[in-house]
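Hey all, sorry for the wall of text incoming. These are the two entities for the joint prediction.
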Amino acid sequence: DAGVIQSPRHEVTEMGQEVTLRCKPISGHDYLFWYRQTMMRGLELLIYFNNNVPIDDSGMPEDRFSAKMPNASFSTLKIQPSEPRDSAVYFCASSLALGQGNMPQHFGDGTRLSIL
Amino acid sequence: SQKIEQNSEALNIQEGKTATLTCNYTNYSPAYLQWYRQDPGRGPVFLLLIRENEKEKRKERLKVTFDTTLKQSLFHITASQPADSATYLCALDLWNTDKLIFGTGTRLQVFP
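and here's what came out:
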């Protein structure tokens, strides 16, 4: 089975440019999560979706960040305009719907973003 | 304030020994606690989940304990191997939320 697929794996761009990160979750998964990982702050949840609907975006750092999930098999995280402090590894994860216990999350291999 | 603490310093142990990693939390009341493994350049991979009313969970060479009084989880790898070298993350799964709160992880290095 294909896991969570993220693209691009690496992105280097100049400050002020628009950056779009892409994610294809595991087929059949109801939840999709976007995280950011840095050495200083660890793995931070930015936003998550349930059945394509954004549920909690309280982790989105500011209005420069936006995320969409137009259908069950695709999501984007956009940064516009980008700043050097946005440099990090961005992960997408998906999971099945919650039952009697929370379900494990399945992560992609991330996008390493460098803003110069 | 709410905190999840994992030992930020790397844990170095010899092959064959038992590795024990600690996850402490304050001002959270998790329903579940999950452990993940992360290799360099890769995303975290789920290992084990333990519920708040479970004391211990085992899976092959892995064992997790969960003490809600001490607000602590211990993660053990018995008969450790160099292939176990990675960063291990704990994550709290809180009541009435769909999201996980991750610790910063502990890097484990198993040397021959």
